[in-house]
Amino acid sequence: MDRMKRLAILGSTGSVGRQTLEVVQRHPDRCRVVGLAAGSNFDLIAQQVAEFQPTRVAFPRPVPGAERVSMEELASAPDVDLVVVATVGKAGLTATLAAIAAGKPIAMANKEIMVMAGSLVMAAARQHGVTVLPVDSALSAVAQCLAGEGQNVEQIILTCTGTPYSWRAPAALRAVSREELLRQTHGIMGRKLSIDSATLMREGMQVIEARWLFDVPFERISVVVHPENAVRALVRFVDGTVKAVISQPSTRLALQYALSYPERWGLPALPPLDLTALGPVSFEPLDEAKYPCFRLATEAGYRGDTYPAVLNAADEMAVLLFLDQQIGFQEIPRVVEAVLNRHQPVHHPTLEDILQADQWARDFTPQQVPE
Ligand SMILES: NC(=O)c1ccc[n+]([C@@H]2O[C@H](COP(=O)([O-])OP(=O)(O)OC[C@H]3O[C@@H](n4cnc5c(N)ncnc54)[C@H](OP(=O)(O)O)[C@@H]3O)[C@@H](O)[C@H]2O)c1
């Protein structure tokens, strides 16, 4: 595309939102901002409006310098070429659907939207002929392997580095503290994503995201442990050929690919990968028995209906309970499973059904804490 891409960024004050604005700063001749949306950080969004001069802003109160509109209007405005969905939770879900209905391509960072409502989002995207590109290094790698390949996928293989927290020694797990988990995982991902990385809920949810993003059945999506963390994802095709993407584990890279697609832009801040320094590269099967959260996520994905929405909400609440020291680390899967077991699913759910299931799970999860 030769002309400037005009971006609407939902969640501009968050980690992914701020990284998106850094891409805009690096490539002022290729993209510019026409809309910004955020939830509460007035000082930062006011600064962003002053610096990037969007025409519109979606925020709970007026922000000087831009017209105040709803997030749905912002995402579907006629002058928007691409919508970056970098909100958390269900914030941004209806705006994403509005953008898709208006034919806008989506750079999707928000994992919760894809887990809760991936089937609805992708059905709408197919109906309106809209591209949804993931902002996540493993899922972006799959998208890059699939580019130009049609429907000949045999297996999507996501990689993860594994975690030191296997579930075989409950006594030791009881002692895993919030501080230890947040120290050992990457601070940039935010606390929720850090805990989800330690339980492998993150990988389980990635399987659900991949199912909807790439329209591939669950049986054809697997996760392998790859401790060297060099290969982001692999795709095996029907003729046995395997394509893989090797890159730095960088959200920034995935984000820039989603913004530049179908082109690629330079990213000098990221040092080139030195293949000779990699050493031996290994892949091991993921032992699902060790990671109950991974199993719960993939089971909820298989069951479908409103189960993924309940999984997403129950996990979010269980992580909050853990961070609030009301439950131990090893109790996160127990709490999530108890909520899933009590759920009355709705078949072929509408957006309303999904939002109701989400609310039910949020209300019900705290009741699972032992007195
Ligand atoms: N961070 C990463 O490296 C990374 C990588 C891949 C995917 N993701 C996924 O990307 C999403 C965003 O992650 P993040 O780390 O950027 O999260 P974050 O730092 O917590 O930012 C969330 C953004 O959403 C906005 N927001 C929250 N509630 C809102 C509402 N009701 N209306 C409008 N805006 C609202 C926040 O605005 P205020 O701050 O102004 O309230 C903020 O701008 C998550 O789903 C995450 O799992 C993150």
N-C termini distance: 59 Å
Low-pLDDT runs: none
> CATH superfamily assignment of the domain at 5-135?
NAD(P)-binding Rossmann-like Domain
The number of distinct β-strands equals: 12
Based on secondary structure, the structural category is alpha/beta
Strand order of the largest sheet: 4-3-2-1-5-6-7
- Spell out which ligands are present: NADP nicotinamide-adenine-dinucleotide phosphate
Q: For the record, what CATH class of the domain at 5-135 applies?
A: Alpha Beta
CATH topology of the domain at 5-135: Rossmann fold
**Helix content range of the residues, please?**
40-55%
Biggest sheet descriptor: 7 strands, parallel
Mean pLDDT across the residues is 92
Q: H/E element string?
A: EHEHEEHEHEHEHEHHHHEEEHEHHHH
Radius of gyration: 20 Å
Number of helices: 15
Mind telling me which CATH architecture of the domain at 5-135 this is? 3-Layer(aba) Sandwich
> DSSP strand (E) fraction?
5-15%
Described by the principal axes of the CA atoms, the overall outline is globular
Descriptive overview:
This protein is of the alpha/beta class and 371 residues long. Among the domains are: 5-135, Rossmann fold (3-Layer(aba) Sandwich); 163-199 and 287-363, RNA polymerase sigma factor, region 2, helix turn helix motif (Rna Polymerase Sigma Factor, Chain: A). Helices cover 45% and strands 15% of the residues. It has 15 helices and twelve strands. The chain has helices at 15-26, 42-52, 71-76, 93-101, 111-128, 137-146, 170-174, 178-184, 190-199, 201-214, 251-260, 292-303, 307-323, 331-342, 351-364, and strands at 5-10, 31-37, 56-58, 67-68, 82-85, 106-108, 132-134, 153-160, 221-225, 231-237, 242-246, 284-285. The chain has a seven-stranded parallel sheet, with helices on both faces. α4 (93-101) packs parallel to α5 (111-128) and α5 (111-128) packs parallel to α10. The longest helix is centred in the N-terminal third of the chain and has 18 residues, at 111-128. It starts with a strand and ends in a 7-residue tail after the last helix. 45% of the residues are buried. NADP nicotinamide-adenine-dinucleotide phosphate is lined by residues 11-17, 37-41, 86-88, 91, 109-112, 135-136, 188-190, 193, 251.
